[in-house]
Amino acid sequence: MRYQISGKQIDIGDALQTHVKEELGEAVKKYAERPTDAQIIFSKSGHEFVCEATVHLSTGLTASARASHNEIYGAFDSCNEKMEKQLRRYKRRLKDHHKDRVEPVELYGASSYILASESDSDAQEPETLQPMIVAEMQTKIANLSVGEAVMQMELAGAPVLVFRKEGEDRINVVYRRDDGNIGWIDPS
């Protein structure tokens, strides 16, 4: 597994990097097969250290966790516990859904935009009807089954997930409804 360990305006020493690789590697190896890479970012928020970890699995799933603590090692340990709990919770579902999958999930490139909300702008009439783009990024759209897409959405803690349905060339969407159920949009 490849590790990318970095700090936002703080120095990450060799001892912390070694600790992260050992502990996270052990947790991920226990509950997930074939992890590809992990990104761990440390930052400081007020008096607390914040650790954000994202692990990509070859099955196409992405698990992420975030924790804060007064000490940098404590922040990582709390984040690692959350990651381990998340992977343990989905271990059975991961094995059931992906036991037949031999190849990694196919990903397609797409553009992702963040549009300015109305509250960000003045209460005046806009000059044009075109929305103001705050940020433009590249993102990946995975080729997944509906069950895998729901699991990926839950692992990421996202309210919505856009994916290409396996065996088809159409874009599908799964989302969390207000009543707590999962909605699935499948264009015909």
TrEMBL record:
Q: Which residues cross the membrane?
A: none
**GO BP, one annotated term:** negative regulation of translational elongation
Q: Report the subcellular localization.
A: Cytoplasm
* Domain Sigma 54 modulation/S30EA ribosomal protein C-terminal, first and last residues per copy: 130-183
**GO cellular-component term (any):** cytosolic small ribosomal subunit
Q: Does the keyword Oxidoreductase apply?
A: no
> Where is it predominantly found?
cytoplasm
One annotated GO molecular function: ribosomal small subunit binding
Pfam families with a match to the protein in the record: Ribosom_S30AE_C, Ribosomal_S30AE
What keywords appear on the UniProt entry? Cytoplasm, Translation regulation
Instruction: Give the protein's biological function.
Output: Required for dimerization of active 70S ribosomes into 100S ribosomes in stationary phase; 100S ribosomes are translationally inactive and sometimes present during exponential growth.
Q: Which family does it belong to?
A: Belongs to the HPF/YfiA ribosome-associated protein family. Long HPF subfamily.
Record text on subunit structure and interactions: Interacts with 100S ribosomes.
Q: What is this protein called in UniProt?
A: Ribosome hibernation promoting factor
Q: Which organism is it from?
A: Sulfitobacter mediterraneus
The encoding gene:
hpf
